[in-house]
Amino acid sequence: MNRVVSAVRAAVLAALATVEDPELRRPITELNMVDSVAVSDTGRVQVRILLTVAGCPLRDVLEQRIGDALAQIAGVSELRVEIGVMSDEQRDTLFTRLRGTSSDERATNNPFNAPDCATTVLAVASGKGGVGKSSVTVNLAVALSRLGFRVGLLDADIYGHSVPDMLAIGDQQPNVVSGVIMPVSAYGVTVMSIAMMKESRSQVIAWRGPMLDRALQQFLSDVYWGELDYLLVDLPPGTGDVAMSVAQLLPSSKVLVVTTPQVAAAEVAERAGTMAFMLKQDVIGVVENMSWLETNCQHCGAAQRVNVFGSGGGSAVTRALSERFGHDVPLLAQIPIDEGLRAGGDTGSPIVLADAPHPAAAALMTLAAHIATWRQALQNR
Predict the structure, then answer these.
(1) Could you give the domains of the chain?
(2) pLDDT tens digit sequence for 103-136
(3) pTM across the whole model
(4) Residue 275 needs a FRET pair 20 to 30 A away by CA distance; which of 75, 127, 323, 380 works?
């Protein structure tokens, strides 16, 4: 091999090391996905890549990334990318190395409870349905991703799973590779939900407590989450089986309580926070959703706030929980009623991604920045 060919081959390998697999989010060279690299005297480059499974839905994305990475290398006259598939043995070796466990051990291995796990697990709870808990969770996850964090989102609302549709991935299903479930990505967030495992959208989930607990165990142990800064868990409303299971399976998880200003919602939100406290979880704060409607006076045109659902609910929850716990539980955000927030949930386009300014988006981005600051302070301490 002459010096020019050697230099081109070294440049190709260096460029491939910058290409991340879209599912595993690791460089393809680190994952042993680069099977061979051949460079001819005329600068013709042939790269053979091994996918984890045949028919990978993100194959085109990976090929595009490889093409972009190699396009600027001097001396390359032609590029050909050949796609192959890993053998069963190669896949098993890869996932055992990634997870640090064999397939038999994964059933009882929860990576978020490992001593060296640096992921902040944040469970989002509410006392009742209809307060916009899932909307807050989805937008908070995307907002944290926009701030540069690696974010996972677990839809633990088994009966009322709405997270995938809010992220426009309601019709996607995860790949299962060597017994490992590969979550679906949306807007930089890694997502897993029971909705993705159903045979049809109309299928009803009617499980009792033990089945719910087992499903959560699988979501934590059998899903390849990768290295995350945050794992957000969208809890079902109330104080039932799933809330207890999450506390048991993720004992270091923190809890964010979502309420609305009205008294009825605030009173049940207190119960959700108290439940977390009883289960030894740390309630880091309260979010008041649908706090007010910003509009203009029909007589004078001046900007004004209309308290559609009353006022003071979020503050009431923080006071009650602070007194009950013996330490401050802050009101972290007040999110106004915003048509864009509702529309974004229906179309699968979170409002924090909108180009136009929205009061709700600003409040959610501020909430994400506050949580990021809190996490950094916790790590420093």
Answers:
(1) 3-101 (3.30.300.130), 111-380 (3.40.50.300)
(2) 455 445 789 988 888 999 999 999 988 899 999 9
(3) 0.83
(4) 380
